[in-house]
Each structure stands twice: as C-alpha cells, then as structure tokens.
C-alpha cells in the first residue's frame, strides 16, 4: 500500500502552465495566502499601488482559457483597494451617432468619464490621432497580443480587426473615471460573458434612410465602405434589439433629446457632482517584516516593525469577501482596515482608506 502511494507520488509531473496577465516585478520577499480559487500574494516592501497581487488558478477566466487553449493556465491580476464604477458599453451601427454622443458626454463630464481606446487594423481617418481615437496597429502584432491574452474582447468588423485591450479599460478605472467602450455587438457579447460588469446600451437610428444620410454626410468613407457598413447595419440592429445583451436601447433621432436620455440612464439627470469617485483610496505600505493569517474572508496582517504612524496600530485586516473583476484585468473591491494591536486587545477599527 505504502509502496503504491510512493509510486503515485513519483509519477507526479511538473506542469508548466500558460501564464496570462502582467506578472508582478520581483520584490524583496512576499507572503502568500491560498484563497478558494486564487493565491493572494503580498509583496514585501513594495509601493502601495504594487503590493497586492492575485495568481488565479481556478477562476472562471482561468477555466475558460484552459478550455480554449487545451492547456493548464494560470493568470496574474493586480489587486486594487476600492471599487470602480461600472463601465458603459455603447454599441450601434456605423453612423448612428455613438461617437457624437460619447464626445458630448466626455466634454460635459471630463473628470467623470474616460474613453477606452481600442486597437484597430483599419487606417486612420483624417482627424484621427493614434493613441487618442484608436491604437492603429498591424494585424500580425494585434493577433500576437490577442494570443498572449492582452485583450478583453476583439472582433472582425467591416473587414478590419478591432479589440479592447485589458489595459485600455483598467487605466481609466485606475484614474478614478468611469470607462466608456464604443464597440460592436460581437464585442458587447464577449464583454457580457467576461468578468467585467458593465452597463450595456444599444443606439438605434430612426430609419435606415437617415442612417445612410448620416454616413454619407460624414464623408469619411469610400462608397464601397459605406455600402459595406449599411449591409452590416441591418443585422447589427436586429441583434441589438433582439439579443439579451443590452440593458437599454436608445433611439438617436433628435441628438439633444437622445443625449438627455443617455445622461438620465447614467444617473446624470439632475444636479451632478463633477468630482470623480477615486478608485485609488488610501496609502499604506506593507512593511518588510510581517506575518499573515486568514480567518474566513479576512486576511490579518501583523506588521512586526510597523510602518504605520501609531505603533499600536500594527494589525491590518484585508477584507477579500467582495472581490470584483480579476484576470485578465485588475482585482478590485479590496478593503483595508487597521484593527489595533494585540496589546490594545483589538480595540477600535479604523478604515485606512
Ligand atoms: N468589438 C469591438 N468593436 C469595436 C472596437 N472599437 C470599435 N469597434 C466598433 O467597430 C465599428 C467600426 O468603428 P469605426 O471604424 O470607428 O467606424 P464608425 O462606427 O463608422 O465610426 C463600430 O461598430 C465600433 O463600435 C473594439 O475595440 N472592439
Ligand atoms: N441625432 C443626429 N441627427 C443628425 N445627425 C447626427 C445625429 N447624431 C449624429 N449625427 C451625425 O451623424 C454622423 C455619424 O455620427 P458618428 O457619431 O460618427 O457615428 P458612429 O460613431 O456611430 O459611427 C456624424 O456626422 C454626426 O455629426
């Protein structure tokens, strides 16, 4: 019996999984805590925005990727204190006015919204700037990056490749802004089934004739491209209206009226505070010398040589009960609290954020 066990042990093979996500840079040391489907890594002596990481081993994203690639997969995700507001996905046929509505929103609320800059293989239009309207890229480069797991979603639209990189969405949330994605219906469907929780809006034209007029008047496409966009529009409208991807359908007939409706459903109807809700809350540097234990969803960090102002506050509680997002993007929803010291008898709780 013992021999059989030993033989079994000897047969265990090391597996080298495919690693997705951006790996943390090495540090002077780290603590690791096993949660149900991922490993929490606390980097010692790292800066406050680089100290919490997760290595996902059995999350929904990892399982999806394993199925797709047919290999073992693990994925890195950086941990962030606090939550970001739900991103807004806006879809609709070419020429319906998505870009116009988004520009109006960004102009009126510059500190509240940020645009997810997509990658595309199509050529830039006259006024379009690389890195602002799109990241204009080569097909082979984009395909390689898609393979490396750098994209949240991608699709072939009107004969070109378009995609939202994980970074495009996360940098907006990192800046404490609400992210707006202008993507097609296929992309919206992919985001719907991803770990990113979003609000989905589909913009419809008042008629096909008006759509054609807007596309022609915009004057940015060749006749062939206009015809291709119009051919695709009917199917897109059909999918947008009938699929259960979208939470709201907006008719863009009168522009001002449509914009008012858009603001209303984003909760911007009345008097709005223009200050963004910052995602980066509080500053706390994990000292080199600490020990870590886990009680249910709470990670207790005992800072032995406390880097905190008050020596007595050397116990920190990291709450991982409400994690949001995760690989291939950031893991949000973490909460830090100073909970005193053993000598205090755990008196008082003070949120560090
Ligand atoms: N899936 C996906 N679609 C995108 C992305 N970026 C843009 N699109 C969509 O691609 C389509 C064509 O966009 P564009 O070339 O800018 O032309 P326009 O819609 O006529 O202004 C539109 O439906 C966009 O919503 C992206 O990152 N992913
Ligand atoms: N409600 C509207 N009424 C008339 N023209 C509009 C309206 N909304 C947008 N447009 C115009 O239609 C054209 C296409 O709009 P655009 O925002 O570029 O569409 P999309 O981003 O959906 O392709 C632009 O020239 C824009 O000025």
TrEMBL record:
<protein>
    <recommendedName>
        <fullName>Guanylate kinase 1</fullName>
        <ecNumber>2.7.4.8</ecNumber>
    </recommendedName>
</protein>
<keyword id="KW-0547">Nucleotide-binding</keyword>
<dbReference type="GO" id="GO:0004385">
    <property type="term" value="F:GMP kinase activity"/>
</dbReference>
<dbReference type="InterPro" id="IPR008145">
    <property type="entry name" value="GK/Ca_channel_bsu"/>
</dbReference>
<dbReference type="InterPro" id="IPR020590">
    <property type="entry name" value="Guanylate_kinase_CS"/>
</dbReference>
<dbReference type="Pfam" id="PF00625">
    <property type="entry name" value="Guanylate_kin"/>
</dbReference>
<dbReference type="InterPro" id="IPR008144">
    <property type="entry name" value="Guanylate_kin-like_dom"/>
</dbReference>
<dbReference type="InterPro" id="IPR017665">
    <property type="entry name" value="Guanylate_kinase"/>
</dbReference>
<comment type="similarity">
    <text>Belongs to the guanylate kinase family.</text>
</comment>
<dbReference type="GO" id="GO:0005524">
    <property type="term" value="F:ATP binding"/>
</dbReference>
<feature type="domain" description="Guanylate kinase-like">
    <location>
        <begin position="85"/>
        <end position="267"/>
    </location>
</feature>
<keyword id="KW-0808">Transferase</keyword>
<dbReference type="InterPro" id="IPR027417">
    <property type="entry name" value="P-loop_NTPase"/>
</dbReference>
<keyword id="KW-0418">Kinase</keyword>
<dbReference type="GO" id="GO:0005829">
    <property type="term" value="C:cytosol"/>
</dbReference>
<keyword id="KW-0067">ATP-binding</keyword>
């Amino acid at each position: 019996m013992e021999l059989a066990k030993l033989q079994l042990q000897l047969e265990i093979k090391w597996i080298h999984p495919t690693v997705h996500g951006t790996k943390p840079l090495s540090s002077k040391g780290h603590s690791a805590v096993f949660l149900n489907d991922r490993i929490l890594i606390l980097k010692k002596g790292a800066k406050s925005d680089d100290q919490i990481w997760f290595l996902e081993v059995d999350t929904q994203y990892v399982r999806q990727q394993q199925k797709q690639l047919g290999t073992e997969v693990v994925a890195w995700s950086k941990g962030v204190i606090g939550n970001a507001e739900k991103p807004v996905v806006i879809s609709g046929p070419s020429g319906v006015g998505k870009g116009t509505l988004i520009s109006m929103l960004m102009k009126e609320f510059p500190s509240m919204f940020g645009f997810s800059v997509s990658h595309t293989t199509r050529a830039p239009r006259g006024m379009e700037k690389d890195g602002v309207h799109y990241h204009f890229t080569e097909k082979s480069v984009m395909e390689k990056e898609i393979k490396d797991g750098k994209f949240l979603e991608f699709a072939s639209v009107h004969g070109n490749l378009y995609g939202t990189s994980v970074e495009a969405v996360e940098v907006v949330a990192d800046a404490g802004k609400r992210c707006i994605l202008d993507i097609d219906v296929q992309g919206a469907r992919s985001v719907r089934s991803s770990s990113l929780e979003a609000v989905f809006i589909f913009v419809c034209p008042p008629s096909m004739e008006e759509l054609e007029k807007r596309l022609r008047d915009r004057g940015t496409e060749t006749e062939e491209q206009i015809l291709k966009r119009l051919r695709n529009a009917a199917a897109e409208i059909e999918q947008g209206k009938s699929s259960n991807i979208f939470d709201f359908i907006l008719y863009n007939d009168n522009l001002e009226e449509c914009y008012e409706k858009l603001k209303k459903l984003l909760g911007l109807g009345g008097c709005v505070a223009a200050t963004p809700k910052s995602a980066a809350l509080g500053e706390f540097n994990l000292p080199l010398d600490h020990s870590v234990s886990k009680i249910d969803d709470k990670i207790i960090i005992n800072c032995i040589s406390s880097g905190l102002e008050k020596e007595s506050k050397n116990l920190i509680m990291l709450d991982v009960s409400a994690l949001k997002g995760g690989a291939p993007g950031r893991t949000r929803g973490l909460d830090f609290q100073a909970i005193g010291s053993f000598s205090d008898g755990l008196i008082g709780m003070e949120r560090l954020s």
